[in-house]
Amino acid sequence: MLLRPLAKGRAWGGSTFASWGKFSPQPGQPPIGESWELADLPGEDACSGIEAGPFAGRSLREAMQERERAILGRAHASPLGRFPLLVKFLDAAENLSVQVHPSPAFAQTNADAHLKTESWFVLSARPGARIWRGVKPHVTREAFERCLRSGGDILPMLVEVPVQAGDCIDLPSGLCHALGAGITVAEIQTPSDTTFRVFDWNRNDPGRPLHLDQALACIAFGAGQELDRWPVAHADQVPPVQTRQFRTTLLSRTPFYRIERIEAMEDADLPVVTHQRPACWMVLSGQVRLGGPHPITAGPWRSLLVPAAAEGLAAHLTAGTCLLRALVPDPMDRWIA
User: Fold this and answer.
1) Is the dihedral of CA 246, 247, 251, 255 positive or negative?
2) Where is the domain boundary, 200, 217, 233?
3) Distant-in-sequence, close-in-space partners of 273: CB < 8 Å, separation ≥ 6
4) 266 φ, ψ to 5°?
5) Of 16, 56, 145, 308, which alpha carbon lies 20 to 30 A from 243's?
6) What pairs with residue 186 in β-bridges?
7) Are residues 278 and 294 in the same domain?
8) Structural domain count of the chain
9) Domain shared by 66 and 180, yes or no
10) pLDDT (tens digit, 0 to 9) for every residue of the chain, 337 residues total?
11) pTM over 0.85
């Protein structure tokens, strides 16, 4: 299924999507900061439309309601019974808020808060670009709260990480973080839009309130952050699996998804192997074509949902095509050594 992206105006958004030909800026509206590529969340303008494929003209929600097993295969739906991934492109012309997503303990006791583990794959970054990822190990919760509530500068308490194109950063629920200015990323995450802002760079925007009490209840400190367990992956340093036609690099593996980068070295057909679970393909360059009764062509910055039932199809990739493949885990994976 070729998905129709959803444009999201954000205070920190930029002009990248317009340069991609993806969205046109609207006068008087905030710049576009997010392109929701695959979404199945409750609420208005929170679910992907299907542009091409067997459900063309309908929504992903409708497709899930009618053919859930064909789409998910052995994978599980989200706790709300929806598609188990949320996939986006983000364009940060300015710093995003310092924020945290619900911790497992918080989510267990707050029915409207859902876990949100996410990963950023850096598509471009201006020189000197950085992110903030975690609280420095020596900083206690008490010291952090004292600084935060007194209006002090919390940035020296955070772990600052320089980034460049090709980096993949995992951000488990409960980890304090912020995306810095001048960075465009592909974001793969669990299907939640619950975010608690800790600091918003003094924007003083009433539409962007802080959530200090909730955030402090969720932020992990010290060894509880497990930063060593979630290292930043550099794509050019990860050994790929390579054939004459394709090069595949494993960028991230979390309990909720796996992210691979696939590069076509020449014009070639890529067999669609699903292992009875769905995937999202985010095309970064080149072109992907699928034939059959519902032919689909996807160029740069478009995304495809590949259902579990698509096993046995073949996708034609032109030379130089690069895509990210986000795979939903098989519940049996935990039993396979």
Assistant:
1) positive
2) 233
3) 311
4) -155, 170
5) 308
6) 89, 121
7) yes
8) 2
9) yes
10) 999 999 999 999 999 999 999 998 788 899 999 999 999 999 889 999 999 999 999 999 999 999 999 999 999 999 889 999 999 999 999 999 999 999 888 988 888 888 899 999 999 999 999 999 999 999 999 999 999 999 999 999 999 999 999 999 999 999 999 999 999 999 999 998 889 999 999 999 999 999 999 999 999 999 999 998 888 999 999 999 999 999 999 999 999 999 999 999 999 999 999 999 999 999 999 999 998 788 999 999 999 999 999 998 999 999 999 999 999 987 765 544 3
11) yes
Please list, in sequence order, all residues whose beta carbon lies within 8 angstroms of the beta carbon of residue 199, skipping any fewer than 6 positions away. 97, 98, 148, 154, 155, 210
Annotation says 261 is catalytic: no
Residues 173 and 267 in one domain: no
Alpha helices in 53-164 (DSSP H): 60-72, 104-109, 141-149
**Same domain assignment for residues 74 and 161:** yes
Are 85 and 106 contained in the same domain? Answer: yes
327: helix, strand or coil: strand
What lies within 8 Å, CB to CB, of 77 at 6+ separation is 64, 68, 83, 84
What are the structure tokens assigned to 208, written together? 């962007």
One-letter amino acid identity for 8? K
Selecting among 10, 197, 258, 325, the annotated active-site residue is: 197
Q: Indicate which CATH number applies to the domain containing 147.
A: 2.60.120.10
Contact 248, 262 (CB under 8 A): yes
The tokens 């900083």 sit on which residue? 139
Distance of CA 237 to the CA centre of its chain: 21
What is the H or E stretch that residue 333 is in?
none
In this structure, is the dihedral angle defined by the CA atoms of residues 188, 25, 48 and 10, taken in order, positive or negative? positive
Are residues 164 and 69 part of one domain? yes
Question: Where a domain ends, among 233, 259, 284?
Answer: 233
Structural domain of 33: 2-233
Based on the fold, state whether residues 309 and 323 are members of the same structural domain.
yes
Cβ contact 230:173 at 8 Å: no
Please provide the distance, in angstroms rounded to a whole number, between the alpha carbons at the two ends of the chain: 33
